[in-house]
Structure formats: structure tokens, C-alpha cells
Amino acid sequence: MENAQRGGRRRRRPRQSDIARVAGVSQTTVSLVLRGTTIGMSLAAETRQRVLDAAERLGYVPDPVATRLAAAGNAMLGLYTFSATFPTDVAHSYYPILAGVEEEAAAQGQDLILFTGSSRSGTGAGDPASLRRVRVADGCLFFGRHVPDEPIRQLAEDGFPFVYIGRRNEPDVPYVGADYVSASAAVLAGLAAAGHRRVRYLREHDQAPSSADREEGVLRGARSTGTETAGLVVRTDGTGLNGLLASWLDDGVTAVVVEQTDTGAALAGLGAAIERAGLRCPRDLSLAVLGAPVGARGRAPGGGAVFSGFDVPMREMGRDAVRLLLRLIEGAEGVETRRLLPCEPVDGGTIAPPRPPGRDPRRE
Amino acid sequence: MENAQRGGRRRRRPRQSDIARVAGVSQTTVSLVLRGTTIGMSLAAETRQRVLDAAERLGYVPDPVATRLAAAGNAMLGLYTFSATFPTDVAHSYYPILAGVEEEAAAQGQDLILFTGSSRSGTGAGDPASLRRVRVADGCLFFGRHVPDEPIRQLAEDGFPFVYIGRRNEPDVPYVGADYVSASAAVLAGLAAAGHRRVRYLREHDQAPSSADREEGVLRGARSTGTETAGLVVRTDGTGLNGLLASWLDDGVTAVVVEQTDTGAALAGLGAAIERAGLRCPRDLSLAVLGAPVGARGRAPGGGAVFSGFDVPMREMGRDAVRLLLRLIEGAEGVETRRLLPCEPVDGGTIAPPRPPGRDPRRE
DNA sequence: CTGAAAGCGCTTACAG
DNA sequence: CTGAAAGCGCTTACAG
Prior knowledge:
- The radius of gyration of chain A is 27 Å and the shape is elongated.
- Chain A has three domains: about 15-60, lambda repressor-like DNA-binding domains (434 Repressor (Amino-terminal Domain)); about 75-180 and about 315-345, Rossmann fold (3-Layer(aba) Sandwich); about 180-310 and about 345-364, Response regulator (Rossmann fold, 3-Layer(aba) Sandwich).
- Chain A is built from 13 helices and twelve strands.
- Chain A has helices spanning about 15-25, 25-35, 45-60, 65-70, 95-105, 115-120, 130, 150-155, 180-195, 210-225, 240-250, 265-275, 315-330; strands at about 75-80, 110-115, 140-145, 160-165, 175-180, 200-205, 235, 255-260, 285-290, 310, 340, 345.
- In chain A, helix 1 packs across helix 3 (about 45-60) and helix 11 (about 240-250) packs across helix 12.
- Chain A has a six-stranded parallel sheet. In chain A, strands 7-6-8-9-10-12 form a six-stranded mixed sheet, with helices on both faces.
- Residues about 1-10 and about 120-125 of chain A have low confidence and may be disordered.
- At the A-B interface, helix 4, helix 5, strand 2, helix 6 and helix 7 of A face helix 4, helix 5, strand 2, helix 6 and helix 8 of B.
- Chain A binds a DNA duplex through helix 2 and helix 4.
């Protein structure tokens, strides 16, 4: 191996002109054969081969930056996350999305550029400079609950192809999201079918579309099943749940629905309150989670059962976003650019018929 | 947003020459003031202002692609994994490494290219063509237990900077690994201190350096503590553990040490055998794992306790590999290019004093 | 203090 | 079938 690594003069990467010299042709010709361009189809097979050989021998690899400057594609897709791509503390909640993106990118022969600009600033907001860098890729996937509008607008205006992972409100923005509305409504329907009429829906203060959609679904589901809507929606930052839980029990609430976000604050707070009160699910209280938590945290408190509710098809969202982005890059017409994927219902065992009226689970 | 995404004609973005025209200066001057370059410090304040104003008015935004081309070096680090980067089935075992890499890359202002070449071919072996692609990055991180030598050699010869994550045997190859030898020896010492003399070490057939190191550490630890070495090392592919376990108990074995690999075959097989035999750890049998499994699988069988053994500092390995790679890229002298990071011992509650001789846990 | 020029490594008309 | 030339939008010596 020689110690090429240390101080060893690094040999300059070969470029097309090097190949040209070796093969005895012009740089233009090199570019033509290397791109396998269909325009200058008429290349002598022998010339072609000579160029190919030289390129192989020199270990040529096209420079993606130069390629992009000259306005061509380079088989690289970007992924820009408006929060650390690999969060430490968030229990890897978004890992499956990354997995899906990587999987499909690989299947399509695309490399993936992870743009790290956003994670640097602790804010999680993408700073404009780092956002601009995404242009070295052929197109970019965006992802994160909170996203700055302006820089993205810029990209859109310039015709740079991109796709959001997660539904967006802005018109004309391509995205692949999850159908939280239907899935949430279905959960309420399930609760109603089990006999619950007085339910609480716990959501965080977050304003993201995914939260709004869940709430809409919950309300829609409640209305269509005759579940009480008064006092149904409760906002929390994850604290003060002990008191809330107590008041709910006083009011005869028999089931609680929680949204699962990246912070997991609401669910964590509720879980703690339930444990503290010594309640058992679903005997004392039915529980449903909108959007299944990932990994080890997917256990219901005091039971070991898996939460009832629905799964977010994160992996599939990642995959589909890659497919859509590729379509946009190739300029395909008539592609559906706003997609909602169905969420799989999960019958996890935390929903049961309501406890008999008048029975206070805390006195047992 | 106009429908810029689909075929819409896009307005040309302003460039430096536009500013130059408006401000009545040369494009060079524009570049100078915009970069705030320290070299051409001597810019008339008035000129400077004029340029700044024009830039502001035109809404100028530098083109990152052009900037990079001109500046040489593209602030991209590669990560090439000799297996799917985001495995589905392997319980995300390597996730923390990715997290560390991403974290440090972000801190250093580097973007990350995930090369997907290796995952495409089901083989997990990187095909030479895809491997060559890594040259588009300024340098590359390699990762995976089994790695093809030849293409890497090529890269080294060309002076392309790279770093392995995980120890390598080849001389002169830069790496950041874990000190499995010391950590494994320490585990044996702990077992000996608890009173165990007859121990079995279960490893897979795998030949990777990380496996070899663990075995070496186990043997070293056994020798220095008077633990029996005869029959100590046992190889398995994860099957036939029921029989093996029975024979060990017959032989008076009181503790088992298992290596944890990416497949987890040995540990999974052993765990199943233990459960099947109805043994409880550590009462009936002490257990230690060399290299902690990740996430939900980190629970010991029949107990719920965390495994004793040690943690692999994956996140820190990722971070440190990025740092080292950056040093190599900048051509730093006298850098330690072969690093082993210490593994944190884990006292997880699966090690206890040996059961009394003659007590057969299976008859209780 | 400022500008003309070359160059980063490619692609793409346009001529032969 | 192949090459000379211009251009993508910047940066960086090098001259004035």
C-alpha cells in the first residue's frame, strides 16, 4: 500500500483531458463517449473502446460538481433534514424513513447526499446557505416537521426538483405523506365500536400538518360515530398529566387517544401518569396511539402489550418519495405529485370495552 | 410558487456579472467584495457599498456549485458500507456509527455522500465500479466486516484519503476501531473475580478482525486469571445450541460469554436455548456479551436484565473516523492513523457467583 | 484600489 | 465520425 496516505503527494485526479491525451482524441470526444450520449451516436467503435480503456486505466470518475455546473445530472439525490438526520435523543424515530430512502435510491442506482447544514445550527432551522448547497444533487428530498418557506420557494422558482416527505399545505409542492386523517378517524371508529363514548384526544402544541391532520381525523371520526366532541381535544406539552388524568377519570372518560410525535412528549407524559395512578390498560382505561412509536418504546405502560392505533408507513414513504423525485427530475408529465399513503391499523391490545360506569379504577 | 416544477420557464438568477454591470465595476471586484476576501482588503468603501447594494437589490445568491468548482474541493465526505447502509433485518446494529459520522461531519461543515453501490448487489461485496465512484468525495469512510482488498489498494496507491471504521490487518491502512482485546480480557477477569473457572466462549465462524480480537482477549483474560482454556472457545452458526448448552451444564460450566456480531446469530441461538431449558440468568448461569446489542434486543433472556459485558463505542468511532479522515485530506503530518477506542464495561446484572457445584439447574 | 485573464472540469451546439 | 470553441458561475493570481 505504500504510505500514500501520509504526506504522500496525492496524485491529481484524472480528468477528461487526461484521458483524451492518453487515448489520442479530443476532450470533447471523451465527454461524448463517457456520457454515452445518444446525440453523437456516431462514434467509431474503435475510438470508443480506446477512450473507455484509457478511462478505466486512469481510474476516471466524473466530477459531480463540474458536471452539475455544466448542467447535467450526476445520479445523486439529496436528503435535507430540518433537524439532525440521526438524532440522539429522539429514539431514532425517523430511522425507517432513511432506511426507505436509502433502499430505493440504491435500487435506482442513485447515491445519496446527506446535507448536514441543518443539524449544525442548533435551531434545527435550515440556514439558507446550507440549503442552497442541495443544488449539487440532481434533486432533493426534504424532511422535518418545521420547514422554512422562503429558501424552498427559491428552489422551486428555479425549477430545482424536490419532494417533501410529509404532507405540506403550500400549493404545488410535491410531497409524499401519510393519510393521518383517515387513519385517525378509523381509530375513533374502533373505539366507538368497542363502546367508548367519552374519549380524550391528547395532542401537543405543535402546528405541523401531521398534527393538524390527526386532529381533523379524530374530530371527523368522533362526529360520524356519535362520540362526544365537547372537551375531546386536549393540548399538552407533556407535563401536568397526573392532574388531567385524574379529572378525566372523574368525568367518566374511558379511553384516551394520543398523538405520537418526534418528541413523544404527550405519550411519555401520559404513560408516566398512568403508571403513577396504577392503572392497567385496557382494563381500566383504553388507549390508542396515532402513529406508532418506534422500537423499544412501543410498549404500553403497565402491560407489555403493543399500543393499538396505527403505524406510519415511514419506510414506504421514503421509498415512494425517491420514486417521485426521480420522476420529477426526468421531467415526466402527469405525475401525481401529492401523495398520501395509507397507514396500517394496529390492533395492539390496549383497547377493550369501557369499564362499567361508576367504577373508579383508582380505588381498587 | 408558480408551477416552476413542471416545465415552467424559469427566470435566470442574477450572477456576479449582473451585479457588476449595475454597480459599474468588474466581475472580479464583485467577487472580491462579496467574498469579503482578506487578500484584496483594499477596496474603496464606496465601491464596496455600491456592490453590496446592487447585490441586495438584485437578490443575488451565490451559486454553490460554481463556487465549489472554482474553489476545488467539494466539502463532501463519502461513506461506503459493505452491506446495506440501513439494514432491515439486522436490527439497525450499525445505526450509532452512522449517527456519529453524520454528527461529526455536520460539525465540520461537511456533507456526506452515502454510496449505495454495495447494497445494490445482494452480495454485500462492493463491485469495483461503484467503489471507484467514491472518488467524487474528498475522502471516504469504509465500513463493514468483510471488505474486498484490491479496489481499496488502488485507492490507496492513488493517494485517495480513506479511513476504515473497524480495525484492519493490512499494514498502513488508517482505521478507527474498538479495543476488543482489552475489553474482552476484562470481561473474563470479571467472571474470574466472581468465582467462575469453567467458562465457554461462543463465537461465530466469521473471520473478521473484530471476531479475532475478541477471541484473543478472551484467551488472554483466561490465562491471566487461571480460567480453564481447554474447551473454552466454541464456534457456532447459531444452531445446535440446545445440545451444546446441555453438555456444558453436564460439564459444570457456570458462565458463558458470547460475541455479538451484526447477525447476532450466536447470541440469538444461545438465548433461545437458555429460555428453552428454563434457565434463569444469572442464578443458574452467568452470561456476558462481548459488544452490546442495540435497542430492544439488549435484554437478557428470561430476566429483563441488561447483559453484562461491554459496549462498543460506535458513535465515537464514527465521530473519530471523520476527524481522522479530515486530517488525512488536509495532508496533516504525524497523525496517528491507527486508532483503537476503549470499550465501556457494562455491569448489567447477568453475572453472579457460580451456582454451587453439583446443583443442576435443570432439575428445579 | 480595480480589472483583464485564466482556470475549476465538465456539456453542448456548431463546424468540419 | 471528430474537434475547436463557448459557456456554466465562480475564485485567484497577476497586472496595472
